[in-house]
Write a structure and sequence with these properties.
Chains A, B, C: It is found in: Mitochondrion matrix. 3 copies of one chain form a homotrimer. By secondary structure, chain A is an alpha/beta fold. Chain A contains 10 helices and 14 strands. The radius of gyration of chain A is 18 Å and the shape is globular.
Amino acid sequence: WGRAVRQLPGLPLAPCRAFSNNKIQVEMNESSGVATMKFKSPPVNSLSLDFLTEFCISLEKLENDRACRGIVITSAIPKIFSSGLDITEMCGKSTEHYTEFWRAVQEMWLRLYSSNMVTLAVINGSSPAGGCLIALSCDYRIMAENPKYTIGLNEAQLGIVAPFWFKDTFVNVVGQRVAERSLQLGSLYPAPEALKFGIVDELVPEEKLQEKAAAVMAQWLALPDHARQITKSMMRKTVLDRLVAHREEDIKNFISFVSKESIQKSLRMYMEMLKKKK
Amino acid sequence: WGRAVRQLPGLPLAPCRAFSNNKIQVEMNESSGVATMKFKSPPVNSLSLDFLTEFCISLEKLENDRACRGIVITSAIPKIFSSGLDITEMCGKSTEHYTEFWRAVQEMWLRLYSSNMVTLAVINGSSPAGGCLIALSCDYRIMAENPKYTIGLNEAQLGIVAPFWFKDTFVNVVGQRVAERSLQLGSLYPAPEALKFGIVDELVPEEKLQEKAAAVMAQWLALPDHARQITKSMMRKTVLDRLVAHREEDIKNFISFVSKESIQKSLRMYMEMLKKKK
Amino acid sequence: WGRAVRQLPGLPLAPCRAFSNNKIQVEMNESSGVATMKFKSPPVNSLSLDFLTEFCISLEKLENDRACRGIVITSAIPKIFSSGLDITEMCGKSTEHYTEFWRAVQEMWLRLYSSNMVTLAVINGSSPAGGCLIALSCDYRIMAENPKYTIGLNEAQLGIVAPFWFKDTFVNVVGQRVAERSLQLGSLYPAPEALKFGIVDELVPEEKLQEKAAAVMAQWLALPDHARQITKSMMRKTVLDRLVAHREEDIKNFISFVSKESIQKSLRMYMEMLKKKK
């Protein structure tokens, strides 16, 4: 870990440490105890196996760093927070690869959803599917006030099914009814609708995002850590325990699903479509 | 099944099949894959044993018809969607009759709530008690924008208790708090309040109901069936499983409740009151 | 029980019985079947062991009184409904004392949350922590329309954790998401925000509280008791059963928590702060 080159605007200047591998840039402000994780995996911060591995390692490092009490998760790429799971990891690969990939997706969620740190999603771009899951797993969600940015668990639109723990996380944020309708329709909500349905907590003009993030984080960090952590754990335990108890079964389900020729076909078609879009 | 005589306005003209027994008129639009079920059991579409049996058979036929992907449930009788369970089936009958009747109520709900088809309630009139349950069991609810039409699980007003699976279905739509208050008070909500509390999803002027129904159905049918069906099943499984696991117990509870002299008395009084209203 | 000296304004004049010990004044209106419990334990109606014992005894008496169908719970002390658990009961006492105290807290909640009577909280002042729990345990909550009065489960701000059944009661009222955020932040909401987040059902100008209370109570008492009671029990059973099943464990948790030197220290600091405020 070296000294940070750049400062997080809106937080006081202070000695910073940073570590950055390929896909995620982490800056740690030791004075405030807040780390900022910026996704910078062009073109769309898709959650590849490498990305997920790096994300988990970063989370673990910060979790074990006593100086770190909160993390801001945001994107370094304009207009996109994260496009979700990398479909190339799900196409034409071996069972071993699917297993490793899915375990990494689970691991990411287990770490993030159970984090002892205050986790704040600063959603400065679109955030479909797995990108939305990351946001939903944080303690608080601020989104850029831009109706062109959308967020949602849109898996059903691709003919795939959001896993039960995506669903559980979603229900814990928006309630059963909004989750049922949104998951069935694979709805992607423009920022104003995302606020209306409770998917995000606040909309902020894009240029004010970091200032707001610092203010929100300060509010959460004003609480004593220990009571807040136990409270968070109490609120999330049921849903976390469900995946822990069914983790291997969930991997088998994923493999069985992704190995179907019909699913492979629709994923290939989807990738072709994405390529043409470029 | 014969050719349909009437078309569902708002859907494209196409070869249609229809079947109609006594109480429910079903029209199937083969081009759109949408069936329309119209309740026409005067005076108030009450859910008699015959009505429920016919409803279940119709649902089963459509469920097994590969061409049918969605159903619109509505009423052919002005001002009333359905008045709910037929109280004459619960008054002065044998234990065998109560058993058969209650099993039919359960069967109707189990089929409707777990349907693989897109189910859309077009509530063009009042919809108390069991009528409300039918609406709540669909995927989406459109109600006529008429404050004279009311909807709700008003069982408590009659001195009876909504069964646990009515309650579970209600909680899944409006959440625990609104359900707790509404069930205790036996609230019947005029359409605008029903929208406010989330009991229905949209209000539409009565003359635009079918046009809107076609648009909503088209939106839901734009999704691939398979992923949508698995998602729906995932969302509703817990609640469905609960009745399946306690079905005989639930029948016994109903019989024990309905056999009480105090309950028989209040049901008789209620029926007298209804007769005088006519 | 003697004749009541004062009448509850807004309810018809009628023979009344009253009983009052030290901390809670109870008036029973036999004509309406409504009892009014007024907390009058200066300075802030804190829930001491004595207060809780008296509360439980009063609840039991009224529960067993066939003439009593509903209770209004309010405060006789200006600006405060109840300040919550009495911290002096949790500071520097013996394990036996902590056990007895915590069992009384549990007992109060078990009786109130499962009461067969209609329970109406008339929140005419601030209501943090345990005070908020009392309000949340009622069937309906009216709060004075005064932004200076706040309500919420703010335990986390004191470095302590709201027990799981406080949390369950809260989730049943406001849903998982609002509860998760509010409990982590230990949020105290001014009355208008409390309404917005669903913590209370209505705001009423302070001088109209009793009139409104009488109207709300009349609405609830218009329902037949038996069906309403079974419905209430059905809605609350899961959450009640959870504490009943884990009651001893919950006591042990409380003792282990409160016995920690760090917790004792922060409670002492908090008490010092309160003393200085005076």
